Amino acid sequence: MPPDLPSEYRCAVEVTVDIAGGKWKPLIVHYLLSGTKRFGELRKLIGGVTQRSLTLQLRELEASGIVRREVFAEVPPRVEYTLTPLGTTLAPTLEAMKVWGEHYLASKSG
């Protein structure tokens, strides 16, 4: 039996979309599934995301317990982002999105 939903949500899908949805969050998680990345690496991989948007999305994912941010005491400072164990549980969801996207593209081309 699923846990009780907080009053601001109508269904568990809404929770998932709130935590991991949006324009950039799925891509951030997708690229972090392959390992730890620095901010600049993520920005290059994603493409088209502004520094501000990426910063905000990473902060939200960190606050939700999906991403861990580690700051190293170096000059210049080095910051790395890694998925938490909870974040890695999104892998099957992203794989399903990838498969759906492939099917969608195939249906449009033929």
Characterization of the model:
It contains 6 helices and 3 strands. The protein is of the alpha+beta class and 110 residues long. It has a single domain, classed as Winged helix-like DNA-binding domain superfamily/Winged helix DNA-binding domain (Arc Repressor Mutant, subunit A). Strand 2 and strand 3 (78-83) form a beta hairpin. This is HTH hxlR-type domain-containing protein. It comes from Knufia peltigerae. Keywords: DNA-binding, Transcription, Transcription regulation. Residues 11-109 form the HTH hxlR-type domain.
List keywords for this structure.
Arc Repressor Mutant, subunit A, WH-like_DNA-bd_sf, 3-stranded antiparallel β-sheet, alpha+beta, 3 strands, 110 residues, 55% helix
Q: What structural class do you assign from the helix and strand content?
A: alpha+beta
What count of structural domains? 1
Beta-strand percentage range: 5-15%
> How would you sum up the global shape?
globular
Radius of gyration: 16 Å
The total of helices stands at 6
* Count of β-strands: 3
Keywords: DNA-binding, Transcription, Transcription regulation
Protein name: HTH hxlR-type domain-containing protein
Organism: Knufia peltigerae
Domain HTH hxlR-type: 11-109
Short précis:
This protein has 110 residues and is of the alpha+beta class. The chain is built from 6 helices and 3 strands, in the order ααβααββαα.
Structural topology:
Elements: H1 12-20, H2 25-32, E1 37-38, H3 39-46, H4 51-63, E2 67-72, E3 78-83, H5 85-88, H6 91-109
Antiparallel strand pairs: 1-3, 2-3
